[in-house]
Amino acid sequence: MDITGTYTFAAPPDKVWALMMDPDAIASCIPGCDRLEPDGVDRYKAAITIGMAAITGKYEGTVTIADRVEPSSYTLMVEGQGRPGFVKGTVTIALRADGGNTIVDVNGTAQTGGTIARLGQRLIGSAAKMMQDRFFACMQSKLASS
């Protein structure tokens, strides 16, 4: 399943970068995030509760930041497992200046397995896109209020 999106922040790339690297801001904006705690350099343990259709479950796993090129791009590698199955993905986040704004481009892929995979890629893709849009809207609001 492909993960893509483009989001505009009303701030320069260095401010957006700082926000995107703030674990507390990230945790507060991830829908269903129960925990995001450091587990080494650029690595975090995460616990997220997600509900899709009739399947709700808690996933525990890791989030790793790689290929960091401050303040323009990085890669997130996510792995999680729970009773409904597993989720694994890699996403590249790229920031680019656009006048006084910053454009954030998101491109990646994700795989699911287990019970959750039976929901079908279309439903999972729609739910993932909704969660991604909610995350970036929250991050945009944090930047606007600071």
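The above is record 1. Record 2 follows with the same two-line structure.
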Amino acid sequence: MTGMYAVQLAFSDDTARLGLRPGHRERLAGLAADGRLLAAGPWDDDSGALLVFLVDSRAELDEILAADPYYAADGVSVTSVQEWNPVTRHHALDGL
């Protein structure tokens, strides 16, 4: 059964993550193209980011996170991973 997961990141002042960001964004584009990422982006103040995944299981999400070195980079902390069940949503999400 497909589940929606919200992943929240926090960024520190360490800029080490910036070198990994182009590859990270390329991976995100691929995940979006194959329907496993609904949206992703940083907070306006660049203190962190929110990503919303649509995957078959938490195990699949864990594999996605483990395959991208950005999530383990200095300056990046995964602060929350929550399965999400939106009860009010835009029609674009119907059927998800």
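Residues 58 and 83 are 8 Å apart (CA to CA).
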